[in-house]
Amino acid sequence: MTEEMESRPWEQLEEILEQGDLQELTQYIDELPADEMARALSRISREDQKEIVRILDWEDAADLFEQVPDSLAVDLLRQVSTGDAAKVLNQMQSNERADLLAEFDDDEAEAILEKMQPEAAADARLLTSYPPGVAGGLMITEYLWHYETSVVDDVIRDFREHAEIYSDYDVQYTYIVTEEMVLIGVLRLRDLLLSPNKRKIADIMIRNPLYVRDNTPLTELGAFFDEHELMGVPVADSDGRLIGIVRREDVDDALIDRSDSDYLKSQGIVGGEELRSMSVWRRSSRRLSWLSINIVLNMIAASVIAAYQDTLSAVIVLAVFLPIISDMSGCSGNQAVAVSIRELSLGLVKPFEVFRVWTKEISVGLINGLVLGLLLGTAAFLWKGNVYLGIVIASAMAINTVVAVSIGGCIPLLLKWMKSDPALASGPILTTITDMCGFLLVLSFATMMLAKLQ
Amino acid sequence: MTEEMESRPWEQLEEILEQGDLQELTQYIDELPADEMARALSRISREDQKEIVRILDWEDAADLFEQVPDSLAVDLLRQVSTGDAAKVLNQMQSNERADLLAEFDDDEAEAILEKMQPEAAADARLLTSYPPGVAGGLMITEYLWHYETSVVDDVIRDFREHAEIYSDYDVQYTYIVTEEMVLIGVLRLRDLLLSPNKRKIADIMIRNPLYVRDNTPLTELGAFFDEHELMGVPVADSDGRLIGIVRREDVDDALIDRSDSDYLKSQGIVGGEELRSMSVWRRSSRRLSWLSINIVLNMIAASVIAAYQDTLSAVIVLAVFLPIISDMSGCSGNQAVAVSIRELSLGLVKPFEVFRVWTKEISVGLINGLVLGLLLGTAAFLWKGNVYLGIVIASAMAINTVVAVSIGGCIPLLLKWMKSDPALASGPILTTITDMCGFLLVLSFATMMLAKLQ
Predict the structure, then answer these.
(1) Would the CATH topology of B145-266 be identical to that of B280-453?
(2) What fold, for A280-453?
(3) Mind telling me how many Å the CA of A308 is from chain B's nearest CA?
(4) Would an 8 Å CB–CB cutoff place B210 in contact with chain A?
(5) Edge to edge, what strands does the sheet with A206-207 contain?
(6) Contacts of B227 in chain A (CB under 8 A)
(7) pLDDT per residue over B236-284, tens digit each?
(8) CB-based contact, B288 to chain A, within 8 Å
(9) At what angle do helices A280-307 and B318-346 cross, to 10 degrees?
């Protein structure tokens, strides 16, 4: 495999596309590992990308798109007609399809949905109607179900008749429902095959099967699969009707995605992930949308400095310490943000437990504030030989560290409580407040001691 | 489930522990969802935590520890004797055991290993000998294997004799090896049961099974499972000998962990995750170890300001813009860092492709630098009515944005190339350089135009 890592699979892909040999293309795509395939697809020209969708069977194209990162798949689908995109999406697994549709703008998604097969479109509308990260949005709709009134023979006959469709499903069970589609049992295929033809399904099914509600959040689904050695769990709506199956692997994938997206958002990549294969304008404008909010917040924070210009020109050395205090408070606060977001996603803390988090942070803040304050204060004193300067800097640093960890620890919980996204908004809110507070502390303490500092 | 979320399971746990009823404790632990269990465990007293390990069977304790976050499990195991910790670890699955041992200090781990069962300890030593995130460290050593020379009857007899051990394994296959333990086939249990007793295993096994080398990195394992609908893949060492099985779910878990830890490290939580149930001193000192490096880097960067004090006191308004330029450049650079780390982990970019990343970043940097520079420069001009101030600020902001995205985009690749951890070191290196560079640009431009600015 190592040699392949050094290779440039996109060059081979371009060569095959030039020859236009469908069989060779299909085989090459089959054999290339998924990550190398994504790498190759992201490096070929727009024309070649379109060509691939044009040449491949819809089903092979769907397989390919299921393997590459969502943002790359959407980028590729944007380049073909909505009709072609619909044909590829028709062939995809229900949850992968819904994930991709959710990444399109509403208008684009609607245009594609209208051209999809009615059944696939209805499935996709159901899945995308759920907020991200709950069972209803993560489930697949490819599963087997039968009525409780069936007998063994009915089910086996149904299997044979629909063998072609069912062969795409990961089948170990069929789910047994009432006439109103209420889930009442699960039947192992093994038990089906070992039972006489006329036996009633209701007699051999396992009653009261485990299930989750459609609004069960991802964290709880993760905990469910940690506990139960199952590959999937049925999903019921508020009336107990079976509407899908959530598979373990999709929950795992969603947990990976959430964690990746928390990381990206905390670093200012918002609105979905960015790949360098996207156009410069798109990358630039998405990054700018975040940066331009931030620069305004920064100007607001810096206005505190502007208000204290007289103090600052009297004691110019303070200007050296302002960016240090701003940056260090941001660091301390972000540590607390990260721990809170982590504990929230592990379910170790609930959004209403703000006070508990605050008491836990305040002690760390006091210790770290004292240490950092002493460090920076001593540096200030040693540099200028003025003990009052040391005191101003040390106390501002210490107090602002306590402020920063308090805000950093609590703000993710408050945002979550208000149904906002903590990974996205915590950073900017934190740094704006701690900057303002830090500047205010340094400059107001300095104003009070102005005579001693000059 | 919703009602349970509002409950305080640790109170019930404390009550049960007070009564000391083993059966009730075991049942309560069995029934509580994994995330609630972790929440409860992290909130009870140290004494109660020890009590749980003391009361539970070793096997139940092992089950419990497999369900909670690693950092919490290690924290709990640190509180009991090394002998008791060894007894719990003996009962754990090989890979979970190795993960926990890897979180202990070397001395602690060695002390526990010495008290473990020799076989479990040898397994653990093998797994922990691999660097994190390769197949050898992720694999489990609980799997079935038989010699190619066996006949059906031998294998079935072996199953019956070891039924108790094997019942813990997730068994669908047995792996077939030569006398030298070289993997040459895989046998489905179904095929075993449907074959005559005297049939040779070599005749019914599937030859040339898929396998991975022990040094296969996590990214490639993820791609492997994206491509192949398998629950696990055998792992071979450099001589082709079978040494373990990597399961899909463990690869998924490792991907989640990597992403979580990238996030935590980028926010300054280093040396493993922090839970608020850990002691104040431990949390505080771990955060401080990071902050104290950062404060030194900050002082180095701020020394640039100190060198230009004369310019600054002549044009005091510059002090307002220094923290803005420092913070904004940090933001722009961190966006580029995040995209690089993401592309590295998706395998879309290789560490040696620094130049490619740089050319992709420079264009985004130019656009965003121009926009942000114009914005901040215009604000400066409008505020003070001095066009030269606007020019100084705008050009410093624009140039520093280009510098920031260049460094931010390339530094994760360079760190990865040097086998360092990009998520950990990228941030501090980035902000130190961009701070110095930003301060230098503003203050040196201002020095050149000093006459026009006053």
Answers:
(1) no
(2) Tetracycline Repressor; domain 2 (1.10.357)
(3) 10
(4) no
(5) A145-147, A173-177, A183-188, A206-207
(6) 33-34, 67
(7) 999 999 999 999 888 988 988 888 888 898 888 887 788 888 889 889 9
(8) yes
(9) 150
- A120/A340 Cα distance (integer angstroms): 39
Pair of tokens at residue B185: 């086939």
Task: Give the Cα separation of A200 and A188 in Å (integer).
Answer: 14
ipTM (interface predicted TM): 0.84
**Residue located via tokens 């991200």:** A132
Q: Does A406 touch chain B (CB under 8 A)?
A: no
Q: Which CATH number fits domain A2-129: 1.25.40.180, 3.30.70.260, 1.10.760.10, 1.25.60.10?
A: 1.25.60.10
Q: Name the residue of chain B whose CA is nearest to A312's CA.
A: B316
Q: Work out the minimum CA distance from B284 to partner chain A, whole angstroms.
A: 5
pLDDT in tens, A79-126: 889 999 999 999 998 999 999 998 898 899 999 999 999 999 999 999
Residue B166: band (very low, low, confident or very high) from pLDDT cuts 50, 70, 90: low
Distance CA B45, CA B23 (A): 21
Which fold does the domain A145-266 belong to in CATH?
A: CBS-domain (3.10.580)
Which residues 264-283 of A have a C-beta within 8 angstroms of B? 264, 266-269, 273-277, 280-281, 283
pLDDT band at B321; cut points 50, 70, 90: very high
Domain ranges of chain A: 2-129, 145-266, 280-453
Q: Is A171 left (phi over 0), alpha (psi -120 to 50) or beta?
A: beta
Name the β-bridge partners of B160: none
Above 50 in pLDDT, residue B365? yes
Give yes or no for a contact between B398 and B369, defined as CB atoms under 8 angstroms apart.
yes
Q: Is A328 exposed, middle or buried (0-12, 13-18, 19+ CB in 10 A)?
A: buried
Among B33, B291, B313, whose Cβ lies nearest the Cβ of A223?
B33
How far away is chain A from the Cα of B293, in angstroms, using its nearest Cα?
11
Query: In whole angstroms, what is the distance from residue B437 CA to residue B395 CA?
Result: 12
Q: Can you say whether residue A283 is alpha, beta or left, with left for phi > 0 and alpha for psi between -120 and 50 degrees?
A: alpha
Helices (H), B207-317: 218-227, 248-266, 280-307, 309-314
| Chain A touched by B96 (CB under 8 Å) | no
Return phi, psi of residue A279, to 5°: -70, 150
A14-50 pLDDT, tens digit per residue, is: 888 888 888 888 888 888 877 788 888 888 888 888 8
Q: Can you name the residues that pair with A242 across neighbouring β-strands?
A: A236
Instruction: Write the DSSP string, A176-226.
Output: EE-TT-BEEEEEEHHHHHTS-TT-BHHHHSEES---EETT-BHHHHHHHHH
Which residue's entry shows tokens 């070649």? A48
Instruction: Decide if A4 touches B, using CB distance below 8 A.
Output: no
Question: Considering only residues 147 to 176 of chain B, which have any Cβ-Cβ distance to chain A shorter than 8 Å?
Answer: 170
Structure tokens at B450: 């000093």
Q: For B280, name the nearest residue in chain A, comparing CA atoms only.
A: A364
Cβ within 8 Å, pair B280-A367: yes
